Amino acid sequence: MLVYTQRTGPGVISDRLQSAFHVSAAVLGTVASVQYLLYMMLQIPVGMSADRWGPERLLVAGIFLDGAGTVWFSHAASFPALLVGRALVGLGDALVFVNIVLILGRWCDAQVFGAMLGLVNTCGSLGAVLATVPLAVWIGTDGWRLPFRVVGLLLVVAAVVDAVCFRWLGRAKRAAVRTGTGTTAPGAADPPPVWRVLGEVVRDRHAWAAFGCHFGLMGTYIGFMSLWAVPYLMDTYQLPRSSATWFNLASFLGAMAGGPLVGRLSDRTGSRKWPYMALHGLAALAWLTLVLCSGHPPEPVAFAVMFVLGLGCGGSMLTFAVVRDHTPVSRSGATSGFANAGGFLSAVLLPVAFGWVLDAAAPSSAPGITGVHAAGSGPAWGSAFWVPFVFSLAGLLGCSLIRERPHHSGAASSLNVVEGT
Hints:
It is a single chain. The protein has 19 helices and no strands. It is mainly α. The chain is globular, with a radius of gyration of 21 Å. Mean pLDDT is 81; it is low at 183-188, 365-376 and 407-421.
């Protein structure tokens, strides 16, 4: 929950950061990009190194770095210092999700693994919800630095608590093994050579399909929501920050609903490809709607668009169902990391590209809150929305590469998709 709060939080203060540090929209995009660049680069190494160092240790290190980076971010006096803070956040963030999945696989019975993963996802979505209206209200009262400082300190405390809990649980597990009442954690066998695994991944059609799916659906959503959503809504509809975040809330509610809804549909139909392609099509249509409306659709349409984009992000967990269906267990971790990296490559590229188009479409010596004039900014936003629309086409291409298994079973829950990791 805390990780998701600080991951999406900067999008609520983009205008304040731009004003405080006197940077253009394109330069501001690097704040989100530097975090997601590190996340993307580390996904495969993290997935392959957890067996050696233990996912518990890596998770604690990740949470601590996440918190330290957020505190640094809150104290930044210059733009380079701001980037250092987000880089630390990206480094820590990269160690969180994959290791949570591995820890659940080690410590939870198979019968409750899916429920636990669903609980983690729900808590993350709750954190994203807290980064909308509640965070905006807090920022309006105390400024942006104090809320990020508090979240960072809470993450550091969480790292310490987790370290203590894992140490206690480790002792209990070892004692159970010695007395014959427990078993060793899975994953103790020597992993295959790194380069052989990576070679198999890059030659795998479905690894690239999953990469494209995550690039087009999840990454575009995160890249936009993490930096540009609130400024866009404030600028286009002349809304105060607290009102603009209600649109974000609609998207996060869509994200909470998307996973269970799309997963259940996939299990019932016995198909991964066609439900996922329909979801990608809806998301692409939502981005295209913003383009065709020159960035200024009626407010009810904007609410619907934000909900659909969130629904797509929540349903993007189906990427890992594709991985599990078509990937041997020996390289499921590396392939899952490769697919996840596709999403965060999109999240790296989109904020900068989006900001660059904004700057190019509305050059001005007197910029408004996002580098464009508050009045007449619609055409600039409409031009910028071509970026996520084009990115979303990569997701449709990825879906087209999926080959359905002839006897796919719907018995496994969609929340169980990364258990092989």
